[in-house]
Amino acid sequence: MRQKIRILVVEDEAAIRDGLIDVLVYHGYEVESAADGSKGLELALSGRFDLVLLDVMLPEINGFEICERIRQTDREQAIMMLTAKVSEDDIINGLKLGADDYVAKPFSITELTLRIGALLRRTKPAKSLAAKLAIDKQLSIDSNNLCGTCDGKEITFTRKELEVVQYLFAHQERAVPRDELLSEVWGYAKNADIETRTVDIHMAKLRRKIESNPKTPERILTVRGAGYRLVVSAS
Q1: Is the preceding omega at residue 59 within 30 degrees of 0, hence cis?
Q2: Cβ(41)–Cβ(69) under 8 Å?
Q3: Which residues does residue 134 pair with via DSSP β-bridges, in sequence order?
Q4: Each residue of 114-128: pLDDT tens digit?
Q5: CATH architecture under which domain 6-121 falls
Q6: Domain spanning 132-230 has what CATH number?
Q7: In the chain, what percentage of residues exceed pLDDT 90?
Q8: Do domains 6-121 and 132-230 have the same CATH topology?
Q9: Is the pLDDT of residue 90 over 90?
């Protein structure tokens, strides 16, 4: 018998926490929760969850620090942040620290469940893609170990960052539209009307890791009106 997908909810507001638990249990997930950052961090680091649903504003330890601490030990753990709708900085900071996606408060139950379902579908690495990616003479990536070498320096990736690079590598002959990345990498339905900056912020993170000058990128190009293209010139 297949085990249920396990989700950890870290949220200090009791009404929101209880509502999230009810909704997730209704959709067939097994749910555990924490009302403060210390307990949330302890549970998150146990490695027992398929997804950590993490509020930003928490007592004792905030969501940003929890996200950062998780990423120091586990670059594959799926993390979704719950952010204040008015705070663009919360969204950017959470994704910079390694969150895979975010949902802005106040959120609809429909949007939340769509995003959770999409993220969970995309947490396992694609087996059909190459384990070693040779981008150019100065950039090579080891997909199995979520790391690489860029301009003589060791770099690491989260699973989601690597999935973005893998998809761009597999379609290097063209620019990949943002909506296609949301569909194929994040798992959103192609007709889903969801507003998110996830793709843009992940691209900015990748450029800081693999570009000599992120402001004038030479490896991940923005093709106006078309999307993003990875420049591969390993030979």
Answers
A1: no
A2: yes
A3: 140
A4: 889 888 886 554 444
A5: 3-Layer(aba) Sandwich (3.40)
A6: 1.10.10.10
A7: 63
A8: no
A9: no
